[in-house]
Design brief:
The structure holds 2 protein chains of 2 kinds. Chain A is an alpha/beta fold. Chain A contains 14 helices and 30 strands. In chain A, the strands form 8 sheets. Chain A has a 7-stranded mixed beta sheet, covered by helices on one side. In chain A, α1 packs antiparallel against α4, α4 runs antiparallel to α13 and α8 crosses α9. Chain A is elongated and about 125 Å long. Chain B starts with 6 loop residues before the first helix and ends in a 5-residue tail after the last helix. In chain B, 33% of the residues lie in helices and 26% in strands. The longest helix of chain B is centred in the last third of the chain and has 24 residues. Chain B is elongated. Chain B folds into 2 domains: 47 residues, no CATH class; 207 residues, Rossmann fold. Chain B is built from 10 helices and 11 strands. Classes of the chains: A alpha/beta, B alpha/beta. At the A-B interface, β1, α2 and α14 of A face β9, β10 and α9 of B.
């Protein structure tokens, strides 16, 4: 049996030492007795004067000698060798995507992948190095070319399934780069392969897939939205459920509002199809909605989804204008909006624009722009809103982006603009409506974190007010500008960045994650109006509260304050947003093709994956675990032998107790 | 046998100062040995004798000698010199033969109390020597109350120290004082030699009571010597409870209280159990030897209450009645 540290066998020199200790005359306690006659006459076998007699009789000594031998063997690290089947430099890629949380293999695919990887590492040649890549939404190296198997174990144990799509292409590219550093390298990918393999990638080492997962039984919530009715009296909820299985099934969908069950419906789902549910009349006081799939499928991550009901608050809009009846009419049509007006000449510090949710400057601009969402219509001069380069006469409209949310239900194909201001697009803005020449007629963006929109022409200088599109465009614009000042109202994908506006006067934000942990955010630049939040890897409701405001109330949600009084618009009140999976790809847990992944790898010189060469050192199986277990058993046995008197007493006491019990009930 | 209250009993009935020494006890008597109630109970007992004995004075005991009591024993032919008063004239009238009536002569009984005063007796918990003194005092008191002669002899070293013979219950306090004066001997005691010495001082056949722990290599020899006297021999074998079931544990050097000899032992539960088993076997051997020699062998532990010893244990073994 070879040893990794044979010098440790010198520890066997302690054997004679142990024997010597036992042979040494004991320092005995003297006790005077009436007579030693009884002890001499009847207790010869109790005496232990002769060392060898004592040695012959002592079971403890035998145990101690065995223990010394075991400890010496343990220190010498014995092992057995066998041919290694892995390369010396191994890169282990662990798929940490949401589908790896599936439980078709107990306890989960990720745990099974870890086990497979650890099992495979037993075939690593002696002295082999291991790198570990956690393939999540952002792949990361959690162990880098280490021979310390303890670190590898810890790195593997630290990988958790993220409720997001893994960037497997990036992970394999990272693994390829790691493998390229060594001559004899191999990439092990532990995955369910439930994704489309990257096609334009070649890994600079053989790729071996350790595939986990067997089944595809999963139903998922793939959409969940709440919308206020135009009357703002009721709310409607939209839920979409997908069946990824090849068998039809019936799933119960539950809608919970603020922790109480609002409605439950049974949905019949055809194989590989989805079904939608609409639920109306959600109570007004509900602020956080949760949808649950009550069925028992193999992926729990996509069985719950959350949505935050947009707060019904009375928007206060300040129109700085000489008077535009069309615009005033359109704004007055907005539900839950209160319109205020002021002449441009009267606008000043006393106007307190910070009290409004939106300030619209109609053909006017103040010297200092307010730090609230702003819509400028035909700005008369160059400002932070844009550089005025002239005017446009009867410009022809270009083709806006088809998926432009601001132009939803807005048809501008028949729009004619008599005159518009020519503006150059500032770097913070995106063009919504361009001219054929590319000049922006309408653009929006976040100017220093403040939602801002600019319409280059006055509505009354076009036929827009006469079209149906006008009130819709106004509504969309207001919604975009006002909504942007709050937290995201639609679900956020896990792992994605969220830009959170910081209320005026606040020093930062405190985000409370679904698990209750908090994170304080500060603006990227001093006085900045937004902070970026990236730690959205948990599914659920996130609560954002401003920091440093005297009247901030972190314990009160935005929903609560809004429902208390629509007029009590508190810009410093906490707001909420939801992070949901809503990823059909991750919900499709059917294992994919391992061969397609393995084809990405290069063929080693020795032929075949893992055949890196005959010069590899053999793999080693350490024998310390059974030896350590044996040593522990010996220690326990020694303790038992040493304390056998107490054990005998306990046994007898128990025996007496058991013996008395039936006697107590027996007839006298 | 119910007897009248003796002088000592009357003395014992005297009032005792509350919380103090009993008023009736002389100053040289250990007040912890007896109390008034115990003395009264002792008066109701008497030492049983299995066979007729030989004594010096007329007493209340049947004697092996034919004498002048009223209890007829046998006839024998008249020979010259016989007391003519003993002739049975009625028989002569019927048979014309001269026959002398023999009567059982009543003699007193000598109870010899041999108290082992070796150093080993001073050990154990409770103290074996104290127990031996109290047992001897109890038996001696019973004998005195029965008008028997009591001789107290303490054994120590190789010799026996004989005290003056006592007779009559009025000498009870003297007996107690003699017992109180027994101190453990310094050095080793040869029990067999001391017993031989004591037996040389015994006159006539009677009852010999040996109270000892028998922790001596010559214990069996001593028993044989005692049995050889022809007297009724009672052996109270006293061991302390911790000698029967020792609580010692671990690696010890045991020092003999008499000889100073040492024995190194390593004790655990199993070893202690083996020791106890062998001590019991040793007692059984002594018991067998005693039975063979017609010795009343009573194994005792020093924690037996004296009342239990006298009124239960010794009665059960027909030592007292």
């Amino acid at each position: 049996m070879p040893f990794a540290a044979p010098l440790a066998l010198l520890g066997l020199a302690f054997l004679p030492l142990v024997v010597a200790f036992w042979m040494l005359k004991l320092r005995r306690t003297e006790r005077t007795v009436s007579s030693t006659l009884l002890w001499q006459r009847f207790g010869e076998d109790l005496q232990a004067n002769a060392p060898w007699q004592r040695l012959r009789r002592s079971f403890l000594l035998v145990l101690q000698l065995l223990l010394v031998i075991l400890l010496a063997l343990l220190a010498a690290q014995p092992f057995v060798e066998r041919p290694a089947t892995l390369a010396r430099d191994l890169v282990v890629v662990i798929d940490a995507s949401a589908s790896m949380a599936a439980t078709d293999v107990a306890p989960s695919r990720l745990d099974a992948a870890r086990e497979l990887a650890l099992e495979a590492l037993r075939n690593l040649p002696a002295g082999g190095r291991v790198s570990v890549v956690a393939a999540g939404a952002t792949p990361r190296v959690v162990a880098n070319a280490t021979s310390d198997m303890g670190r590898v174990h810890a790195a593997l144990a630290g990988i958790a399934a993220t409720p997001a799509t893994a960037d497997m292409g990036e992970a394999l590219a990272l693994a390829s780069a790691l493998a390229a550093r060594a001559g004899d390298a191999q990439v092990l990918v532990a995955t369910d392969a439930a994704f489309t393999p990257p096609t334009d990638l070649e890994v600079a080492a053989p790729v071996t897939v350790l595939q986990v997962g067997r089944e595809r039984r999963n139903q998922a919530l793939v959409a969940f939205a709440v919308r206020s009715a135009p009357t703002a009296v009721t709310r409607s909820v939209f839920i979409s459920v997908a069946n990824m299985d090849l068998e039809p099934t019936t799933e119960r969908v539950e809608l919970w509002g603020d922790g109480r069950l609002l409605e439950a419906r049974d949905l019949f789902l055809d194989p590989l199809s989805r079904a939608d549910v609409g639920i109306d009349d959600v109570p007004l006081d509900v602020r956080v909605l949760e949808a649950r799939l009550a069925g028992d499928d193999q992926l729990a991550l996509d069985d719950r989804a959350w949505a935050v009901v947009p707060p019904d608050r009375l928007l206060r809009i300040l129109l700085v204008s000489e008077g535009d009846p069309y615009l005033e009419a359109a704004l007055s049509f907005l539900p839950s909006a209160e319109l205020y007006g002021v002449k441009p000449a009267d606008y000043g510090v006393g106007t307190k624009p910070e009290l409004f949710d939106l300030v619209i400057f109609d053909a006017a601009l103040p010297a200092a722009l307010p730090r609230v969402p702003t819509l400028a219509i035909a700005p008369p001069r160059t400002s932070a809103l844009g550089t005025v380069t002239g005017s446009l006469v009867d410009p022809a409209l270009g083709r806006p982006a088809p998926d432009e949310p601001l132009l939803r239900y807005v048809d501008l194909t028949t729009l004619h603009v008599a005159e518009a201001t020519r503006l150059s697009l500032p770097d913070w803005a995106r063009t919504v409506v361009p001219t054929v020449a590319g000049d922006p007629l309408l653009y929006t963006g976040a100017r220093d974190g403040v939602a801002t929109g600019v319409l280059a022409f006055e509505p009354r200088r076009s036929d827009l007010p006469l079209q149906v599109a006008f009130p819709i465009l106004v509504s969309n614009l207001v919604g975009e500008l006002v909504g942007a000042s709050r937290a995201p109202t639609t679900a956020v994908a896990p792992g994605s960045l969220v830009s959170l506006p910081i209320p005026s006067g606040a020093a930062g934000l405190r985000v409370t994650r679904p698990d209750g942990t908090t994170l304080d955010l500060a603006p990227a630049v001093t006085g900045g109006a937004t902070a970026t939040f990236a730690s959205t890897e948990q599914l659920g409701i996130y609560t954002v509260a401003p920091l440093g405001l005297a009247d901030a109330s972190p314990t009160t949600t935005a929903a609560g304050s809004a429902s208390a009084s629509p007029d009590a618009v508190d810009p410093s009140a906490p707001v909420q947003f939801a992070v949901d999976l809503f990823d059909v790809g991750e919900s499709t847990i059917a294992p994919g093709s391992a061969a397609a992944l393995e084809r990405l790898g290069s063929v080693a010189a020795g032929g075949g994956a893992g055949g890196g060469g005959d010069g590899r050192p053999p793999a080693r199986d350490n024998l310390w675990i059974p030896l350590a277990a044996l040593a522990l058993a010996f220690i326990a046995l020694e303790a038992v032998v040493f304390q056998r008197d107490a054990l005998v007493r306990i046994r007898r006491r128990l025996g007496r107790g058991l013996g008395r019990r039936p006697a107590a009930g027996a007839p006298a | 046998m119910e007897r009248e209250t003796t002088e000592a009993g009357s003395a014992a009935a005297a009032a005792r100062p509350p919380g103090g020494r009993p008023a009736f006890l002389p100053s040289d008597v250990d007040p912890t040995v007896f109390d008034e109630d115990f003395l009264r109970r002792l008066e109701r007992l008497a030492v049983l004798v299995k066979r007729p004995v030989r004594g010096g004075l007329k007493g209340g005991r049947r004697s092996v000698r034919r004498g002048q009591s009223v209890e007829f024993a046998d006839y024998r032919d008249y020979s010259l010199g016989d007391d003519l008063r003993q002739l049975d004239w009625n028989v002569y009238a019927r048979l014309e033969k001269l026959l002398v009536k023999l009567f059982i002569e009543e003699e007193d009984l000598t109870v010899t109390l041999l108290v082992d005063g070796s150093a080993s007796m001073a050990h154990g918990s409770p103290d074996k020597l104290v127990f031996a003194k109290r047992a001897a005092a109890a038996l001696g008191y019973i004998a005195l109350a029965a008008e028997d002669r009591v001789v107290l002899t303490s054994l120590g070293g190789r010799a026996a120290r004989r005290r003056a013979a006592l007779r009559g219950s009025g000498r009870a306090f003297r007996l107690l004082a003699d017992l109180s004066a027994i101190e453990p001997a310094a050095g080793a005691t040869d029990l067999a030699a001391a017993c031989r010495h004591a037996l040389a001082q015994v006159t006539g056949r009677g009852v010999i009571v040996l109270v000892s722990d028998l922790l001596d290599p010559g214990a069996e020899r001593a028993l044989r010597d005692l049995a050889g006297t022809g007297a009724d021999v009672i052996v109270l074998h006293v061991l302390a409870p911790d000698e029967l079931n020792p609580t010692l544990d671990g690696d010890l050097r045991l020092v003999d209280a008499e000889t100073g000899a040492t024995v190194d032992v390593t004790l655990d539960l199993a070893a202690r159990e083996r020791y106890t088993e062998r001590v019991e076997a040793w007692q059984a051997e002594l018991g067998a030897l005693a039975a063979k020699r017609r010795i009343a062998y009573v194994p005792l532990t020093s924690d037996v209450p004296l009342a239990d010893l006298v009124f239960a244990e010794l009665r059960r073994r027909r030592v007292v009645g």
